[in-house]
Amino acid sequence: MRVVLLGPPGSGKGTHGKRLSESLGVPLVATGDILRQAIAEGTALGKSAQEHVKSGRLVPDETVLGLIETRLGRRDAQGGFILDGFPRTVAQAEGLKSLLGGRPLDLVLNLVVPTEVVVSRLRDRWLCAKCGAIYNASTAPPKVAGRCDVCGSALTQRTDDEPETVRKRLEVYARETAPLVAYYEREGALRNVDASGLAADVYAAIQRSIGKAA
Ligand code: AMP
Where is Zn(2+) annotated to bind (predicted)? Predict the structure, then answer.
């Protein structure tokens, strides 16, 4: 299946994308993760993306389309993929369409969450720097404070989850990415999912949408 996860920062794309990728047996392709890794490794891509990511602005479309073309060209993505954080502009959506040629997306899941909920989720979000597991200090805390349940490594917060950068990211989302809801509605692939509740309830709603699209 070819699935796009749409929704503002903190709507749960990473959490649900990971589970969906495991259950459908297709790779999760998260442009934010790819960019953060490139930044950590100090590659040319990382150097060109660094300032954009740090300030909560979008990395240029050509850069992101280039990395998506490479990633979706790999063998493991031939049977499908879950895209998290891409596309983020209409130009990226058009680029994806031409990359896919005749193979349309099966489903675009729009995770709908009120702004005040995402702001508090991002404030409480902790991540394992080693394995990427995601926690929420108030609703899904780790068993041992500050330590990952999966691999025992130290948990960290993303620098762009700091309140001022979150405000910028939400502004960018409203201006650049929210128009994709109407775009994919016109394409007939969009399903809205109320993603404001508990992760288990949201995932059950996602599975129902997947079941209808399969
Ligand atoms: P995310 O992990 O999806 O929240 O992305 C973190 C940051 O990476 C964003 O705030 C952007 O700076 C950058 N980024 C991720 N995906 C894209 C994309 N599709 N287009 C442009 N910038 C992106």
Answer: 128, 131, 148, 151
Q: What integer pLDDT is reported at residue 213 of this predicted model?
A: 73
Q: What is the pTM of this model?
A: 0.93
Residue with tokens 């079941």: 211
User: Model confidence over 138-183: pLDDT tens digits?
Assistant: 989 999 999 999 999 999 999 999 999 999 999 999 999 999 999 9
Token reading at 117: 């909920």
How many domains, in total, are found in the chain? 1
Residue of 2, 13, 71, 191 marked catalytic? 13
Which tens digits make up the pLDDT trace of 91-104?
Answer: 999 999 999 998 89
**Ligand 1 pocket residue status of 189, Cβ below 6 Å:** no
Q: Can you tell me the distance from the alpha carbon of 168 to that of 70, in angstroms, rounded to the nearest whole number?
A: 29
User: Residue 159: is it exposed, middle or buried by C-beta count within 10 angstroms (0-12/13-18/19+)?
Assistant: exposed
Q: How far away, in angstroms, is 141 Cα from ligand 1 center?
A: 25
Mean predicted lDDT score pLDDT of the chain: 95
Domain boundaries, position 18: 2-113+175-209
Residue 96, ligand 1, Cβ within 6 A: no
Residue 119 belongs to a domain: no
Closest residue by Cα to atom 10, ligand 1, is 56
